[in-house]
Each structure stands twice: as C-alpha cells, then as structure tokens.
Amino acid sequence: MKLQTAKNTITSAADEEERQSFYSECIVKLSSEDADELIEWFEKRADALWTKETAFTKWLDTFVEEKGIDTQKFLGVEGAEWGINLIPVGVVIQHIKLTSPEEQAQIKNVIVKIDFANGDVVDFFKHLAKAIAR
Asked: Do 113 and 63 have their domain in common?
C-alpha cells in the first residue's frame, strides 16, 4: 500500500470509528518508513480536526509532553482477529481523548495515581490499547 493511498483512505472515513479502523488496517500494510510518516500525519491531523480541545485534552497533552512520553512508540497487544497488534502510544492517546467525560475523569484519576507512585503510565496506555486491538 502506498502512503498517499493510506492517507486518502483514512480521510474518507465517515466517522471516528471507521477512521480508526482504516488507520489500523493501513498502518500494518506500509513499510516502516511510511508507517512512521503516517503516524506523524495522523497525529497532527487528528489533533487539528477530529478531537475537540477541552480542559482534559489540554491536561493530557501537557502531561504527555512534560513526562517526555514517546507518542510514536509501538505497544504490542494481543488482538482476537489479528494476533499481535502494534499500536502507537499516540493512537491510544487519541482514543482516550474521544472517550466520554466520565471515562476521561476515571482515566485521569488512574494516570495521576500511577504518576504519584512513580509508576510507568505507558503500561496503563498498553492496558487501554487492548480495547483498540483487533
């Protein structure tokens, strides 16, 4: 699959669920260089167009930036359909931003507790990535 084809496919999605599905399907069909470029493109586009900025999204972005979390790091999680899924941390963060305000409050509470205990928040992101895996 070519990078531009992947971008066009993702952009043509009717809604966020379809967009994420297309993204997941495209990312595994690209070379590693093209996949890296697609991740960067998707994160920028998702931030600009598909996620409403709220106090929570600002807090999450600030937290990730201040902690130096690599949003392009791949998390390997088992999926029922595809086996091991490689999901970038940035995709998990985008999914977090799309949750309901109630879920966001719960997620923030867990992140704050993990951070207070000097735990690795990326482990929590990996746990959340299981909901995305196919």
From this structure: yes
Asked whether the beta carbons of 67 and 33 are under 8 A apart, the reply is no
List beta partners, residue 87: 75
Verify that 75 and 92 share a domain, yes or no: yes
State which residues form the domain around 101.
Answer: 53-134
In order of 28, 31, 71, the CA distances from 113 in angstroms are: 34, 38, 21
| Cα 117 to Cα 11, 27, 96, 104, 113, distances in angstroms | 40, 34, 21, 20, 6
Put residue 13 in one of left, alpha, beta given phi > 0 → left and psi -120 to 50 → alpha: beta
Q: How far is CA 130 from CA 40, 70, 75, 95, in A?
A: 22, 19, 10, 12
Q: Cα(60)–Cα(97) distance, rounded to whole angstroms? A: 8
Name residue, tokens 């379809």: 18
pTM of the model: 0.65
Q: Does one domain contain both 75 and 133? A: yes
Which range among 22-36, 61-75, 90-104 has the greatest average pLDDT? 61-75
Q: What is the pLDDT of residues 46-71, one digit of tens each?
A: 655 556 789 999 999 999 999 999 99
